[in-house]
Amino acid sequence: MSMNSHAAIAPSLLARIGAPVRRRAAFLLLMASLGLGVLREAALGDAWRRPVRAEFRRVLREAAGGGFSTIAVTAALIGLGLVSQAIYWLGEAGQEGIVGTVLVTVLVRELAPVLVGFVLLGRSGMVAIVELGAMQAGGQLRALQGMGLDPFRLLVLPRVAAFAVTGFTLGIIFVLIALLTGFVAGSLLGVVQLSLFGFLDAVLRAMGARDFLLFPGKLVMIGALVGLTSTITGLSARRGDSTATLLPRGFLRGVLAVLLCSALLSLAV
Question: What does the DSSP assignment read for 214-254?
Fold first, then answer.
């Protein structure tokens, strides 16, 4: 093979490698810039005008209300399959004293934020992708700009803020239902030696200052990241995109964001 052939292959190979890297780097930079923009705009009083507040309340109502039943069922299953089994087997091993520590480590720190993020992504994030993708494809974003309205404040800011609040709310509900279901199941099995308040007190005592920062921080950040990935995916829809291409793309981005956020925060805090 001649030198000219080698010279022609090298740029082609670099282009095939560099194109996906550039796309992913551009998406991460866009997420970072929009995230900082949301923090900045959320702190400004004049950003929360009536249309923005109305959109925030609508998204919050649909995300929290729509996700409640799914979270309740999922938490009840986790309570039966994880919490009650932890109580039972630790009781059988004579280690009742570490039940709170185990539940805090597994349920509160790791499992609850991730499952809440997945439910929020599947229940509300996909809806946001479809809504914003249709607006982008239908030219409604250009119409909003033509009327002097800021699409970022009207569409991105309220959704990310509502998803962050929803993530925190559903996370607290998830943990409470999982613990209560596990306690009731353990009581029916006759392996719980504590009262309900004693059981909850043992869990709270097992939580340190780190957990009181990590747990709500994870819930809020995961909710915000689900909102960011969903809005970016919908607003960046290209000509020819459909729900068949947008939804898998947004779902993959959301799952990766949830898992990476949970892992990084667990390592950092």
Answer: HHHHHHHHHHHHHHHHHHHHHHTPPTT--HHHHHHHHHHHH
